[in-house]
Design brief:
Blueprint lengths: L1 H27 L49 H6 L8 E6 L18 E5 L4 H7 L4 E5 L8 H7 L5 E5 H11 L5 E6 L17 H12 L26 H14 L1 H4 L15 H4 L5 H10 L17 H13 L14
Parallel strand pairs: 2-3, 2-4
Antiparallel strand pairs: 1-4, 1-5
Helix pairs in contact: 5-6, 7-11
Length: 339
């Protein structure tokens, strides 16, 4: 009892002393220092984890649909659109699925001979496949209602590969969504388009989309696989002048050649080839003109246009340049004013 009483007296004394100190500071006009915080030995309570807020999905630009979607169903229009695909009118390709990419890295791979290859009957595809050494060639009639049937069979594993006319293969890849799932290899020399798909070219955005798909897939126009010998052109005679053909050649020139040579064959001093073709054409023989167009001038960075222009289009451009040289046809493109 005595010990408990002494404890009470001690606590009271300490409290009284603390009050006196506070009073002293207050009388002196000084700020009373706060009491020291009491350090607890117990650990601080764990923080409650906050529920994670799901990240908002990134806004991505919506990819425009291909202009070729649904083209296969337009049976009356399809041949003209495929015939309008630039550079690939005479090209056939070997289509190999990604599952065989390791064993078939190119069309010359030895394993190609052991493939079960589909080809459109009545076209050059069967002969092209056999030229690769393939012995198991299944020739299937062209189906107007299902022009991409061979590609579907390759996708579904019913065929190991297929040989197709390049424009038709490009269309099938775009419509079936096979981009990145198959490889395309240019095979053999130039061959004509299938009879069922040969038609006058019909301008359509799908034709350009097919050409872009073939470009991205690394397909070379078959004409570029052929060597050009000037002796093949020595017997060619220049065409008899025809104004309508010259005008048609002007459209082709401005579409194909003007980027380097200037619109309407007027030399552009800022162009890639500032040569006045209205003068140059007077020096060229017709065989020489053909050779340069088909073979290009690699030393001067001029590309070969075999595969880009057809046999019928080169004479039209020649006629146009001769007409411009003789001032029979005027320029049709306005000349921009000097800044």
């Amino acid at each position: 009892m005595r010990r408990a009483w002494l404890g009470v007296v001690f606590v009271g004394t300490v409290f009284a002393a603390f009050v006196c100190v506070q009073s002293g500071f207050a009388r002196a006009g000084q700020q009373v220092p706060p009491p020291e915080p009491i350090t607890q030995s117990d650990p601080a309570p764990a923080e409650v984890p906050q529920e994670a807020t799901p990240a908002e999905p990134e806004q991505t630009a919506e990819e425009a649909p291909s202009p070729c979607i649904g083209m296969s169903a337009q049976t009356g229009r399809l041949p003209g659109v495929l015939s309008a695909v630039p550079r690939y009118a005479s090209t056939y390709v070997l289509v190999v699925p990604e599952r065989l990419a390791d064993t078939i890295p190119n069309a010359a791979a030895p394993a190609v001979r052991d493939l079960h290859v589909g080809a459109t009957a009545g076209t050059a595809a069967g002969d092209v496949a056999r030229a690769l050494g393939v012995t198991n060639v299944e020739e299937v009639p062209y189906q107007e209602s299902a022009p991409s049937k061979l590609l579907e069979d390759v996708r579904d594993g019913k065929l190991d590969a297929a040989v197709l006319w390049a424009p038709l293969a490009g269309l099938g890849i775009l419509e079936l969504g096979l981009d990145g799932q198959v490889s395309l290899y240019t095979v053999d020399k130039p061959h004509p388009a299938p009879d069922a798909l040969h038609a006058a070219a019909t301008a359509d955005p799908c034709a350009g989309a097919i050409a872009d798909e073939l470009d991205v897939s690394g397909v070379l126009p078959a004409e570029l696989l052929m060597t050009v010998d000037i002796r093949d052109f020595l017997t060619r005679q220049p065409p008899k002048f025809d104004l309508a053909q010259a005008q048609e050649g002007g459209v082709l020139f401005n579409q194909t050649c003007a980027r380097c040579h200037g619109a309407d064959a007027v030399a552009d001093p800022h162009g890639l080839a500032p040569v006045d073709l209205r003068l140059s054409i007077q020096r060229f023989s017709y065989p020489g003109f053909n050779y340069i167009v088909w073979n290009g001038r690699p030393a001067k960075s001029m590309p070969a246009f075999r595969g880009t222009l057809s046999e019928d289009q080169v004479p039209l451009i020649y006629q146009y340049l001769r007409a411009r040289s003789k001032k029979i046809l005027p320029a049709t493109t306005p000349v921009p004013a000097e800044p």
